[in-house]
Write a structure and sequence with these properties.
Blueprint: H1 7-59, H2 69-74, H3 78-92, H4 98-109, H5 112-120, H6 125-137, H7 144-148, H8 156-170, H9 187-196, H10 205-212, H11 217-230, H12 236-242, H13 248-260, H14 266-273, H15 279-291, H16 298-307, H17 311-323, H18 327-336, H19 342-351
Helix pairs in contact: 1-3, 1-4, 3-4, 5-6, 6-8, 8-9, 11-13, 12-13, 13-15, 15-17, 16-17, 17-19
Length: about 350
């Protein structure tokens, strides 16, 4: 038979619960106070650093960056050093030229290069990534061999910073990581890297052609964007051969690229492949004809408008014809067709804001 709960036991249980609740509330108050204190410190630090950095940029004295006693004292604490580092990185993104050189001088004067190297030894991936980012943005060339040691690191954030560093330090040659890349190269990462490549070396089309054969779709898309940026015309034949071999986004990106590096054969070649393309790619072709003034393809566009069973293709064809100054043709067509003809609805939908 179970022992009945006595009044003493009940009081003791309630007391224990009250003590636990008190400890929880006390811990929550302590945590909240620390967070408030930390946030207040950060705001003070931000005000001091903003004022100091702006003054340093205005004075533009790279060879004689002042050592402020207060900042030196605060730099004894890791929390402040990392905050200082973050502020410098944020500021460097906003400035270029001489101002950027001043920020790099501040970076070295306050030994934040040493702090960045210390971050590389951290066990936390986000701190390693921050260290690589700081050393890259501040152009610490001596750090490059150390950064390369993280090429096989098992964290995507770190790998992204390593990839960016390779291009920043080594230009086009830094794209060597594409050779064996298995992970997806995000659109944002592609944009970062593409903006970092300032020039395209002559006789490098073979390397681009090799990357176009990659099994990684994101690598192919990135290379197509690079071809567009530097207008690498010699790869036009390669892209035409690739066109029927791919579907979805890669095929669409190939078409976008062909319009950028078009030759006198591009339009006819795209028309020949048109029926084999996905609907999205067909729309891209028709839209490209309109934007690239393909006057020699008027008959093709009119045929798509009248005879293609896909309503969206009809709409794109009508838009392209409008861009090619075929407004009178579209108006006359709308007037001559029977009201119940689906093409009339397409014309009204596509051109209601233009005619």
């Amino acid at each position: 038979m179970e022992k009945a709960l006595t009044l003493h036991d009940l009081n003791l249980s309630i007391l224990v619960i009250l003590i636990l609740v008190f400890i929880f509330i006390l811990g929550l108050l302590i945590y909240s106070f620390r967070e408030y204190k930390l946030e207040a410190n950060r705001q003070q630090w931000k005000n001091k650093l903003d004022s100091f950095l702006m003054e340093a940029i205005v004075e533009n004295n790279i060879t004689n960056i002042p050592l402020q006693h207060e900042l030196v004292e605060l730099s004894r604490y890791a929390g402040f050093r990392r905050f200082f580092l973050n502020q410098l990185i944020s500021s460097e993104r906003k400035f270029s030229g001489v101002a950027s050189n001043v920020l790099q001088a501040v970076f070295h004067q306050y030994n934040l290069d040493e702090e960045s190297f210390r971050l590389l030894n951290s066990s936390k991936a986000h701190l390693i990534a921050r260290g690589i980012q700081a050393l890259t943005i501040m152009k610490v060339n001596s750090a490059y061999p150390t950064i390369l040691n993280f090429q096989q690191y098992k964290n995507e954030l770190v790998l992204h910073e390593v990839q960016y560093a390779m291009v920043q330090f080594d230009g086009f040659n830094g794209l060597a990581f594409l050779n064996q890349l298995q992970l997806k190269l995000s659109d944002w990462q592609q944009l970062r890297i593409l903006n970092s490549i300032k020039s395209y070396p002559q006789n490098s089309s073979d390397k681009l052609s090799e990357w176009l054969d990659s099994s990684n779709p994101s690598v192919i898309i990135f290379v197509l964007k690079m071809i567009r940026k530097f207008q690498i015309f010699e790869l036009h034949p390669k892209l035409m051969k690739m066109l029927p071999l791919h579907k979805d986004r890669i095929q669409t990106e190939i078409i976008k690229t062909l319009f950028v590096i078009e030759t006198d054969q591009t339009f006819d070649l795209l028309v020949n492949e048109f029926s084999k393309l996905t609907e999205k790619s067909q729309q891209e072709v028709i839209e490209g004809f309109g934007h690239n003034r393909a006057y020699d393809q008027l008959n093709f566009l009119k045929d798509q408008l009248l005879n293609n069973p896909n309503k969206q293709i009809k709409v794109f064809a009508a838009e392209a014809l409008y861009n090619l100054v075929e407004v009178n043709y579209l108006i006359n067509l709308s007037d001559t067709l029977q009201p119940q003809d689906p093409t009339v609805l397409v014309l009204n939908h596509a051109l209601q804001r233009k005619i």
